[in-house]
Amino acid sequence: MPAPELPSGIYGVCDDSLRPGWALEEKAARLLEGHVRVLQLRMKQTPLRRALEVARSVAALCRQAGALCLVNDRVDLALLSGAHGVHLGDEDLPVEDARALLGPDAIIGATCRTAEAISRAKQAGASYAGVGPVFSTTTKQVDARLLGVEGLSKLLETAVLPVVAIAGIRLANVGDVAASGARMAAVVSDLLLAQDPVAQARLLAAEFERGRARRTLGDTP
To answer: What's the predicted TM-score (pTM) here?
Structure first.
């Protein structure tokens, strides 16, 4: 059975550093209610046993909602929780080793900064490339130049994997990200810090679709 195909649209990141008054399970439930169809658990501050408990609960919620659950960084948590896969950064387990552990059915994302890095990630067995930073962000410290929409569009011309654009993406610019050709737009703060994350998720998804329609009509950024 092949790995599920990455859908298009909003890729919601459940980060434990934002809105700490809400449990990760609650954040995930709200994003899923807003029809987010890929949800990544980013648990940098959560103790390991609690992180496994969360991953198992959220993976089950995602399956009930027909969504995909990915775990940031931790291949072990993805494997033990029954999540659909993992997203790996520059300092994490190599993609080929994660693929060997998780098997052919898992979705494995890899952080990439260049078209060459995307090609290497594909050869190693990645399912998609997480590309950024597109815009400036305060959610995560990233030591890399900003791509902007123009840089993202140029990189996408030769990308050999589906691309999830990340960093600083919000309602005001998600349409341009979609029009650039990115498969998905990863959103963190604009979802989790919204007054109503459910409504915000739906607004973001609608704006992304408008951006995709602009691309179809040839009106790219």
So the answer is: 0.93
